[in-house]
Amino acid sequence: MSGTPAAGGSSPARRRGHEEGERVPLFASPSGSPMGSLKHRTGGSLGDVVIAGAAAADGPGSGSGAAHHAAASSGLSPMVLLCVAVASMGALCFGYHLGVVNGPLEVLSQQLGFGGSAVLQGMVVSSLLAGAAVGSLAGSGLADSLGRRRAFLLDALPMLAGPLISAGATGLAAMLAGRVLTGVGIGLSSALVPLYISEISPTALRGTLGSINQLMICVGILAALLVNVVLPATAWRSMFALAAAPAALLGLGMLVCPESPTWLVLKGHRREAGAVAEKLWGADGASQLGSAKHDEGSGSAAGPSWGEVLSSKAAIVGMLLFVFQQFSGINAIVYFSSSVFEKAGIESGALASAAVGATNVLGTVVAAGLMDKAGRKQLVSLSFAGMGLSMLAMAAGLSLPFLSGMTGGIALFGTLAYILSFAMGAGPVPGLLVPEITAARIRGRAVSLAMVTHWVCNFAIGQLFLSAVSAFGVSACYLFFAVVCFACVAFIQRAVVETKGRSLEEIELAMAAV
Fold this sequence. Notes:
CATH topology of the domain at 304-514: Growth Hormone, Chain: A
Strand content: under 5%
Low-confidence stretches: 1-74, 291-301
CATH superfamily of the domain at 304-514: MFS general substrate transporter like domains
CATH class of the domain at 304-514: Mainly Alpha
Mean pLDDT: 81
CATH architecture of the domain at 304-514: Up-down Bundle
Structural class: mainly alpha
Number of helices: 24
Distance between the termini: 27 Å
Helix content: 55-70%
Number of strands: 0
Shape: globular
Order of helices and strands: HHHHHHHHHHHHHHHHHHHHHHHH
């Protein structure tokens, strides 16, 4: 939130700090004005997205001053907004499908002939995750061989057909087929959306625009909750059919969106890449293509092997960020949210879920505004620290006798504090960081590998959590999650570089030096 001097007024010391990824205090007062000035901002916020051209760069910036200045001074073009909006339909589908089946599961299982079978009901839920793991792994090959845009066009097909098959299902087999096909689609989009947005966004607003991916996932989850509240469980066919609408918007929208300029450079199409860059970032947009310059010409040869990807420090860091994210307890918190609210005197499960969903959306909106100001590293570190403290508070409320009278209040406050902390860093930042810290040549496969890790860990937590609660108790599980959160803070400080205000090429060089 701190202000920065105007171009030409920053000192060499200030510029060196910026180049090194200097962390800016979240709530420091801007110098020279109590309210700051839009034209002196280095980064962007949701306000900058709405008012195109409100953000400006701070002179030499992070080592590629001309590119950075061009990105910020040119503002946010309508084409970038269109591309982000269209790609975000994939994230909306992602969130919606995660939550839509929970409400009508009992009714649809009765109508389709497997009512009362917990195993078969579990298959309907988990088949989506299995398909998503396959889809996210396939995303890298499609993104690298066909290009980001054509991969999206292909991705729209299973995301359109899957929910329609589920909506028309007359038995278990058709329902599972639709869920698996839908999972493949959202798995593909989970890899494609952050990759595409990071490559079409101007440097000065890459963090803000990249966080829209997580915001739309949260909106999708909240939309599924609202649909479950508004429509009766017997209308489950309509609930599934509604999901075809954003999938159709994704496919139709990508017909008019350009290919990623980074991918075009990797394939040796620099002239076309320059034209796309100018359309996205303005007259000086081609100067931002340096991030892929050293890889030019390699695109016509064989793509990177999985061995090359797995030997990349950045790819390993990306995978571990998602391991920490999934084992930090987010699924456990969501699972217990209804019972936590009941103990606090709020018996409506729908109201409990709405409070969690609204808190998640609110935190993600705040994170989007801070992403290009405070920086990714500071936000995600504070996020995991807040999550760890919330877990410790809830574990203490459950296990310490002198707090027994306040257990409900502590659990309620701890749950909302945890969700807010998660939404402000641990939720949006990993998906934004992975395409930023990986080299252009391996970026597609690195993002896919990170998302496969996400889905596998998500599935594992879902299978193991209730057994762990039965064996060790809720308090012990919460303590474990707290340890994971604090371990992640230490890992981030050691292994992750700040990416705020840096070009993708500069970030790659910084990661090599870690």
